[in-house]
Amino acid sequence: MEKHVLGISGGKDSAALAIYMAQHYPELDIEYFFTDTGEELPEVHEFLTMLEGFLGKPITRLNPHRNFKFWLREFNHFLPSAQTRWCTQKLKLEPFRNWVNQWVKAGVTVHSYVAIRADEDYREGYNPNNQFLKVKYPFREDGIDKQGVFDLLEASGMGLPKYYEWRSRSGCTFCFFQQKIEWVRLKERHPEAFEEAKALEKSAEDHGSPFTWTQGEPLSMLERPERVQQIREDFDKRVARNEARKEKFANPLRANLVDIDDLYDCDEGNNSCNVCHK
Question: What is the pLDDT of residue 129?
Fold first, then answer.
């Protein structure tokens, strides 16, 4: 017996892969899943609903009871960070393993399809230590690169998730990999979520956590008007540098490519750089 599954992150690549597999391999009857942290952006849930409509089947939500706040309490209110990424382990990896184990333990071969593109040679992917769990990379195998992802999303009518208008990645509302400009925009777009993040940060400090959401700067300082202005100016300078580099090394065959991943250059003093910490 065989089972086929595909994880949806809420981002562009996994959505494009779901579309690609539904169009090119409908006979596989893939089950789609989303590991819900309980703290996702509203735009993510909106995009998932649209994707369900396109696929014509529901996307299974994992983590129905043990969300981010549950595990935050289990870790004594210590915030996750780039050094201690307990959120990835508890909210992404373990739920997936527990979910597929129901078939693996029964001797069912599970094929898991992962959206690593053909132009992402630096990504190694996941190598399971189980003969009944097989990980496959259709984009890499079929030569689908970043432009191919954009083409798939555009042709399907799905387009990009709306959060790409102001943020460079999906994930938890207060993900520590956000750049400072994205925290500023979170405060503008979802002020209640920003205030909740501040409260969690204050609770973590009270419990002795050494981490803040952004490296070396609590949100209570980041949100000060003069600091916000500085963050905006620094971001504008980085965007200008990116544009200058693109003009210098322009590729006429990629003239229409909207490079979402590289829109944000290194945020000095922060570990949330999309180039260094994808």
Answer: 79
